[in-house]
Design a protein that fits this description.
Length: about 375
């Protein structure tokens, strides 16, 4: 089976993990801050906090921005459930903003309309979580502008998008948001097995994220409410979690990060090739935008809804591990029980009805890609 996504692990990656395994540190040690510094430098952010996965990073990002019961978070329905669940972990309510059918990212038009309605109704969101779907940055400048005008904070869910650029700056620079979150799950651009990171330019947010990652415990005298008892002393100042990344994972992450440009080039080459090969087929491809470059985590296409089921089955039968990204989050039973229903976000639902993600990963060789294209052509004949 040609999978839809797959990690690329080199001998150097293996050596890096072995070196960490032979070192004094298995849990969070020197490799974690080194990995954080490397990602922050690559993205042009002042601070980075590595955590156990992007779901944890989103949770801590919401907590660091003081999200709590009674607050409201908006995100896109065309995402993985974690983009919305992070708000629920904090006891906050979730609502969604429909997508732009061309880019499949959050629609700025829908967002502006929703802000106007929310302002009139007196219930504005505290946090907006745009997702850079498939690796292509959302309309960050317009989103940031609308959010700022409505007193709303922004967390970029950039789980798909490390290495992507927007207006010549890396995603993660923090120009348009308070916190940016990356995922290092194996199908993503760079992997640490499980892993995630939260980037920010705000020193207070960075301190809070780091403290919440480790049980809400501090060893900093200025964060304590009494004089230190001695060098052993720590205080738990708030309720935190154990969301730490291990040094084994960070060592892999550091090694993978050195290969980021190689990964991006391979993914872009494959995406360009799909674009060319599929141009004559009855599939809708993602619209590209001139002012940004995708990291190409996914290669989603859309076929006429009645054809999707048979197409998916036929491709799987041919050993092509297609997937569907995403089942709109508001249609999940958990969210339906919170009051959402079919028809609430028609653009996300229409896209889902015809959605298929084709295999895309750095080690997908041209012959395997040819097989995918041939099977797709055959299925759509
Ligand atoms: C958009 C998005 N957000 C968040 C996550 C959660 O990432 P993780 O698996 O690292 O917790 C994912 C993972 O698939 C994702 O695709």
């Amino acid at each position: 089976m040609i999978p839809y996504g797959r990690q690329s692990i080199s001998d150097a990656d293996v050596e890096a993990v072995l070196a960490a395994l032979r070192s004094d540190w298995l849990t969070q040690g020197p490799a974690v801050p080194a990995f954080e510094a490397a990602v922050a430098a690559r993205c042009g952010a002042a601070y980075a906090v590595a955590v156990s996965n992007a779901t944890a990073a989103l949770h801590l990002a919401c907590l660091a921005l003081d999200l709590g019961p009674g607050d409201l978070v908006w995100t896109t329905p065309n995402t993985f459930v974690a983009s919305a669940n992070c708000a629920r972990y904090c006891g906050a309510d979730v609502d969604f903003v429909d997508i732009d059918p061309a880019t499949l990212n959050l629609s700025v038009t829908a967002l502006a309309e929703k802000f106007a309605r929310a302002e009139a109704a007196g219930r504005l969101p505290k946090i907006l979580i745009p997702v850079h779907f498939s690796g292509q940055p959302a309309d960050l400048a317009e989103i940031a502008d609308l959010a700022r005008r409505h007193g709303c904070r922004v967390i970029e869910d950039a789980s798909h998008a490390i290495g992507a650029t927007y207006r010549d700056e890396p995603v993660g620079s923090g120009r348009y948001s308070d916190i940016t979150v990356f995922s290092f799950h194996p199908v993503k651009i760079v992997t640490t097995g499980e892993g995630g990171m939260a980037l920010t330019n705000d020193p207070e947010l960075a301190r809070r994220l780091a403290r919440l990652r480790s049980h809400g415990i501090t060893r900093e005298a200025e964060e304590m409410d009494e004089a230190s008892h001695g060098p052993w002393y720590y205080q738990q100042t708030e309720l935190g979690y154990n969301y730490r990344l291990t040094d084994l994972q960070a060592a892999l992450g550091l090694s993978q990060l050195r290969r980021l440009d190689e990964f991006l080039a391979a993914r872009r080459r494959l995406a360009d090739r799909y674009d060319r090969e599929l141009a004559c087929l009855p599939v809708r491809r993602l619209a590209r935008r001139d002012d940004r470059q995708s990291a190409w985590h996914l290669y989603p296409v859309q076929v006429a809804a009645p054809r999707r089921q048979a197409l998916f089955t036929q491709l799987r039968e041919h050993g092509i591990g297609v997937q569907v990204h995403y089942i709109p989050v508001h249609l999940q039973p958990y969210y339906r029980r919170l009051g959402f229903a079919a028809g609430d976000f028609p653009a996300a639902e229409a896209y889902y009805a015809g959605a298929v993600s084709l295999p895309l990963y750095p080690d997908l060789d041209p012959a395997a890609q040819d097989k995918v294209v041939a099977a797709l052509k055959d299925a759509l004949r």
